[in-house]
Each structure stands twice: as C-alpha cells, then as structure tokens.
Amino acid sequence: MPSSAFFTLGRDHWSLLAYVEIRVIDYQVAPGVGVIDREHLRRDPTNHDDWDRLHDLQKEGFLNIESSDGCFVRLTCRGIEAVSKLRTHKASGGTFSTFRWGLNLSLSKDTDTTGYRKPTRDLNHIYPNFDVLNVCNLVVNPL
Asked: How far apart are CA 21 and CA 126, in angstroms?
C-alpha cells in the first residue's frame, strides 16, 4: 500500500520541500535548521496555501517546524530521503507534478524498493567514509 503522502501531496508540496532543502542547506541558523523567507511563501486565506502545505509536510514526517512562527525548519531523515529521490527524479527529466513518493509501479532487478534505479556503484566505493545514517542522525539530532 502506498504511503498517505502519495495520495495527499502534489506538485506544490514537492516544490516547497525542495525550497525547504535549499533553506536548510544555504541559510542555516543552527546545525540542520534553516530559516524560511516568509516573502517566498504564498498566503491565501481562501485556499490551501504554502503555509498549509508546510504543515502537511510536517504531518507526513518530511520536516519539523522548529518555531511557532514557522520560519525555522529542519528536514527529517524521511525528508532527506524524499528530497534525494526528488532531485534524482528532476535530474532525469521529471517534474514536481510527476514525482510520486512511496508508489511501487514496476520493480525490476535494476530498481530499489521505491521504483528508482539502483546506483551502478555503491556509494561507499566512491566515498569510503560516507555513512548516510550518520548524516541523517546529525541532521535530526545535531551534536
């Protein structure tokens, strides 16, 4: 069964998650915590706006809102994984609207459990000291 994020999140959610990643990486105020530029988020009291989408992303476990005004955010391990798959999807010619999280359509021996192609080389072969779980732990639980 696909995750609930498959049914509830769309193009604007994925675009916002990509924006959050940029803010966490390039505009850190603390290790793993980024600041969102309020001017970049759309506010529409009559419709589902970017602030609602930010809370949807938190509800689905992709990020944590670290302040009451919503300006400070932290990606979770799930968010880091999703952004990685989203970047791979976009780099392969996909769009935010065609990205699907958690749906296994057609798996083959060349794909992982999410339907994405397996890397041709193990990342540890290229970067022997790279530990993705350690990176996730540092982001979720900074020192």
From this structure: 24
